[in-house]
Amino acid sequence: VIHYKKGIAFLEKVSLQDLAQQFGTPLFVYSQSLLQDRCKEIKEAFASHPTKVCYALKANSNIALLKFIFSMGIGADVVSGGELEKALLAGALPEQIVFSGVGKTVSEIELALKKHIFSFNVESVEEIQLIGTIAKQMSQSVSISLRINPNINVKTNPYIATGLYRTKFGFPESQIAEALQSLRECPELKLKGLSCHLGSQIHQLLPYTQATRRLRKLADELRAQGHAIETLDVGGGFGVDYHGKPSHSLDAYAKAIQKEVKDTDYGLLIEPGRSLVAEAGILVSTVLFTKHNPYKHFVIVDASMTELIRPALYEAFHPIEPCLKRKGKLCKVDIVGPVCETSDFLGTSRLLPPLQRGDLVWIGFCGAYGSSMSSNYNVRPRAAEVLVSSKEVKQVCKREALADLWKRET
Ligand code: LLP
Question: What is the pTM of this model?
Answer without folding.
Answer: 0.97
